[in-house]
Design brief:
Keywords: Cell membrane, Membrane, Transmembrane, Transmembrane helix. 47% of the residues lie in helices and 13% in strands. By secondary structure, the chain is α+β, with helices and mostly antiparallel strands. It has a 3-stranded mixed sheet with strand order 3-4-5, with no helix packed on it. A two-stranded antiparallel sheet has the order 1-2. Helix 1 runs antiparallel to helix 2. It is elongated. The protein binds zinc ion. Zinc ion (ZN) is lined by residues 73, 75-76, 78, 80, 89, 91-92, 94.
Protein backbone atom coordinates (compact mmCIF):
# COMPACT_ATOMS: atom_id res chain seq x y z
CA UNK A 1 0.00 0.00 0.00
CA UNK A 2 1.46 3.30 -1.07
CA UNK A 3 1.33 6.41 1.04
CA UNK A 4 -1.32 8.97 0.28
CA UNK A 5 -0.03 11.71 -1.94
CA UNK A 6 -1.41 14.94 -3.28
CA UNK A 7 -4.64 15.12 -5.16
CA UNK A 8 -2.98 15.02 -8.57
CA UNK A 9 -1.37 11.69 -7.77
CA UNK A 10 -4.59 10.47 -6.21
CA UNK A 11 -6.39 11.23 -9.45
CA UNK A 12 -3.83 9.29 -11.47
CA UNK A 13 -4.03 6.44 -8.97
CA UNK A 14 -7.79 6.16 -9.31
CA UNK A 15 -7.30 6.20 -13.08
CA UNK A 16 -4.84 3.30 -12.81
CA UNK A 17 -7.23 1.46 -10.53
CA UNK A 18 -10.09 1.91 -12.98
CA UNK A 19 -7.87 0.50 -15.73
CA UNK A 20 -7.45 -2.67 -13.67
CA UNK A 21 -11.22 -2.92 -13.20
CA UNK A 22 -11.86 -2.39 -16.91
CA UNK A 23 -9.24 -5.04 -17.66
CA UNK A 24 -10.91 -7.57 -15.40
CA UNK A 25 -14.38 -6.75 -16.72
CA UNK A 26 -13.18 -7.22 -20.31
CA UNK A 27 -11.48 -10.51 -19.39
CA UNK A 28 -14.60 -11.60 -17.55
CA UNK A 29 -16.62 -10.74 -20.65
CA UNK A 30 -14.48 -13.21 -22.58
CA UNK A 31 -15.98 -16.03 -20.53
CA UNK A 32 -19.27 -15.51 -22.36
CA UNK A 33 -17.49 -16.42 -25.57
CA UNK A 34 -15.89 -19.60 -24.23
CA UNK A 35 -17.43 -21.51 -27.13
CA UNK A 36 -15.39 -19.41 -29.50
CA UNK A 37 -11.73 -19.62 -28.52
CA UNK A 38 -10.69 -16.86 -30.93
CA UNK A 39 -13.10 -14.24 -29.55
CA UNK A 40 -12.30 -15.33 -26.01
CA UNK A 41 -8.57 -14.92 -26.68
CA UNK A 42 -9.17 -11.45 -28.10
CA UNK A 43 -11.11 -10.47 -24.96
CA UNK A 44 -8.38 -11.88 -22.74
CA UNK A 45 -5.67 -10.01 -24.64
CA UNK A 46 -7.64 -6.75 -24.47
CA UNK A 47 -8.14 -7.21 -20.75
CA UNK A 48 -4.46 -7.93 -20.34
CA UNK A 49 -3.67 -4.77 -22.30
CA UNK A 50 -5.67 -2.68 -19.81
CA UNK A 51 -3.91 -4.31 -16.90
CA UNK A 52 -0.50 -3.70 -18.50
CA UNK A 53 -1.50 -0.08 -19.09
CA UNK A 54 -2.41 0.30 -15.43
CA UNK A 55 0.96 -1.17 -14.44
CA UNK A 56 2.62 1.46 -16.60
CA UNK A 57 0.52 4.18 -14.95
CA UNK A 58 1.43 2.86 -11.50
CA UNK A 59 5.09 2.94 -12.52
CA UNK A 60 4.60 6.51 -13.68
CA UNK A 61 3.07 7.39 -10.30
CA UNK A 62 6.17 5.95 -8.66
CA UNK A 63 8.32 8.24 -10.79
CA UNK A 64 6.11 11.24 -10.06
CA UNK A 65 5.99 10.66 -6.33
CA UNK A 66 9.76 11.03 -6.15
CA UNK A 67 9.29 14.56 -7.44
CA UNK A 68 6.79 15.65 -4.82
CA UNK A 69 7.71 18.49 -2.51
CA UNK A 70 6.64 18.47 1.10
CA UNK A 71 5.12 21.76 2.19
CA UNK A 72 3.19 23.04 5.15
CA UNK A 73 -0.32 23.99 4.17
CA UNK A 74 -1.02 27.68 5.00
CA UNK A 75 -4.69 26.89 5.52
CA UNK A 76 -4.80 23.82 7.78
CA UNK A 77 -1.16 23.78 8.91
CA UNK A 78 -0.65 20.12 8.03
CA UNK A 79 2.26 18.84 6.02
CA UNK A 80 1.16 17.90 2.55
CA UNK A 81 2.95 16.83 -0.61
CA UNK A 82 2.62 18.72 -3.81
CA UNK A 83 3.48 17.78 -7.35
CA UNK A 84 4.66 20.46 -9.70
CA UNK A 85 4.27 24.16 -9.09
CA UNK A 86 0.58 24.01 -8.34
CA UNK A 87 -1.43 21.39 -6.52
CA UNK A 88 -4.02 21.03 -3.81
CA UNK A 89 -3.60 20.30 -0.14
CA UNK A 90 -4.54 16.66 0.33
CA UNK A 91 -6.21 17.40 3.67
CA UNK A 92 -8.28 20.53 3.09
CA UNK A 93 -8.04 20.80 -0.73
CA UNK A 94 -6.55 24.26 -0.44
CA UNK A 95 -4.99 25.25 -3.78
CA UNK A 96 -1.25 25.68 -3.34
CA UNK A 97 1.43 27.15 -5.52
CA UNK A 98 5.16 27.49 -5.12
CA UNK A 99 5.41 30.34 -7.59
CA UNK A 100 3.30 33.45 -6.88
CA UNK A 101 3.64 34.47 -10.54
CA UNK A 102 1.70 31.39 -11.54
CA UNK A 103 -1.25 32.25 -9.35
CA UNK A 104 -4.46 31.96 -11.29
CA UNK A 105 -2.63 30.80 -14.39
CA UNK A 106 -1.86 27.15 -14.14
CA UNK A 107 -4.94 26.18 -12.19
CA UNK A 108 -7.46 24.59 -14.47
CA UNK A 109 -11.09 25.65 -14.74
CA UNK A 110 -12.26 23.64 -11.76
CA UNK A 111 -9.83 25.46 -9.48
CA UNK A 112 -10.70 28.83 -10.94
CA UNK A 113 -14.26 28.53 -9.70
CA UNK A 114 -12.94 29.33 -6.27
CA UNK A 115 -11.57 32.76 -6.99
CA UNK A 116 -9.58 34.15 -4.10
CA UNK A 117 -8.28 31.29 -2.01
CA UNK A 118 -4.97 30.67 -3.70
CA UNK A 119 -2.18 31.24 -1.27
CA UNK A 120 1.48 31.26 -2.21
CA UNK A 121 3.99 29.36 -0.16
CA UNK A 122 7.30 31.03 0.35
ZN1 LIG B 1 -4.46 22.10 4.05
Amino acid sequence: MMAKYSSKINKIRSFALSLIFIGFIVMYGGIYFRNSPLIMTIFMLFGLLFIIASTVVYFWIGMLSTKTIQVKCPSCGKHTKMLGKVDMCMYCREPLTLDPNLEGKEFDESYNKKSNNKKPIS
